[in-house]
Amino acid sequence: MVTEKTYRFSLDKSSRKLKCPHCGQKTYVPYMDNETGAILSDEVGRCDRENNCGYHHTPAQYFKDNGIESTPVEKKEIAAEPPKPIDYISLDLVQKSMNGHEQSNFAQYVIRLFGAEVGNKLLLKYFVGRAKADQGKGNIFWRIDAKGMARTGKIMVYHENGKRNKEVNPVWAHNALRPFNHHLCFFGEHIIAEFPNKTIAITESEKTAIIASVFFPQYNWLATGGASDCKWREYSVFKVLENRNVILFPDFGYYNKRTERTCYQEWKDRAETIMQRIKCNISVSRVLENNLPESERANDYDLADLLIKTDETGIAVTDAGYPVIWDYVNKEFA
Hints:
Elements: E1 2-6, E2 9-11, E3 28-33, E4 45-47, E5 56-57, H1 59-65, E6 74-78, H2 91-97, H3 105-114, H4 116-125, E7 128-131, H5 133-136, E8 138-144, E9 150-156, E10 171-172, H6 190-194, E11 199-203, H7 206-215, E12 219-223, H8 235-238, E13 245-248, E14 254-256, E15 261-262, H9 263-277, E16 281-284, H10 287-291, H11 303-307, E17 310-311, E18 314-315, H12 325-329
Parallel strand pairs: 11-12, 11-13, 13-16
Antiparallel strand pairs: 1-6, 2-3, 3-4, 4-5, 7-8, 8-9, 9-10, 14-15, 17-18
Helix pairs in contact: 3-4
């Protein structure tokens, strides 16, 4: 028998998103009353835009602000159930999505950046398929785990300039396969099994991991898919880092604008927590903090922005006539 805490209010577990009362984006998850199935309040919930918004108003805060006695947490004894087996997506479906992969906007951007040979190798290496979204120009970034099994896929729409279309929310492939017991993993996780002796480098964006892998092939490049997107604070996800050397490359800027904690601070804390749980060596890169000029610090930047800095003529060059990215490639990034 195990003791389970039962909360009357919890975040909505469905896939619906509402308009955030703080930033106005449709990325807001409300708290639900588990007894009535109703939303507790339009202002009680959490915004998924952790970096750019950070809004999170809990039921406890709501009760305190309104002088309402909070509902106590119930505890009950329940029989321990064996964990449900993870569901996987057919690798045939993954392979089918790779047909015509080069026709998507994101693929065309990568090919323009690195050439057809390198670009196509990257897309195939990371299993970036083509999706029906955006009239067949959308992409599905498959999450293949360290055992080579497809956990799910993240469907996203990109513009021709390589920027994500943020007016279209990402959609998980497993949503169409319910009931489906999905467990997320790092994007690119399958690569660590292929190259077990390489240091693992982790970024937030899938796009950044793909681009950085060209400049720094000595690392296995993975991505979380968002500040907390693959739930990498959970043991079931970060356990693949055991006995490995890891470098984290957080985005530049605030992780939470309300608390004024930076991405670097947040990822530094996570690194320490993970190292307390498993045997591994994790460092957190300060490359963005150390190299971004003051004129660009107001923007939300990541490593890819540093590596592929461009001007109106294409890849930006220095006064000496060589690409700006060479300076960054030759710096110590850890």
